[in-house]
Amino acid sequence: MADVAADVDTFLAKVPSEARGALENLRQMIRAVVPDATERIGYGIPAFYYRGRPLVSYGVGTNHCSFYVQSPAVMEAFADELASYDTAKATIRFAPDQPLPPGLVEELVKARMKETDASKAK
User: Fold this and answer.
1) CA angle (105 as vertex; 100, 108 as ends), nearest 5
2) Angle value at C-alpha 61, between 40 and 63, nearest 5 degrees
């Protein structure tokens, strides 16, 4: 994905169909948890912003989709739930045909919202 898309829909239109479906489902899951978040391209990938700050984002690799939780602390707090996934510091990789469970996505997004709210209060 060398070309940076101007908006989220353009980004998704360029994604191969199997991965696009998985990412669109992830997008809808996130949107259901935080409907007032704004979406835009950030660092070349779709990102949700909550209260003006980056919340979570997602993207696609050659053989996987990625959910960027953007918080090592949240990843650590959910280490048990994420044990069966390929993870990095603040990223979860998953196969397009094995999407993340909605309940897990909801918990991760809510944890990021709580983290954002706490940092805004300081």
Assistant:
1) 135
2) 145
pLDDT tens-place string over residues 67-115: 999 999 999 999 999 999 999 999 999 999 999 999 999 999 999 999 9
Domain boundaries, the chain: 8-116
pTM of the model: 0.92
> What pLDDT band is residue 5 in, cutting at 50, 70 and 90?
confident
Q: What is the DSSP string of 16-69?
A: -HHHHHHHHHHHHHHHHH-TT-EEEEETTEEEEEETTEEEEEEEE-SS-EEEE-
Pick the CATH number of 8-116 from 1.10.3720.10, 3.90.1150.200, 3.30.499.10, 3.40.50.2300: 3.90.1150.200
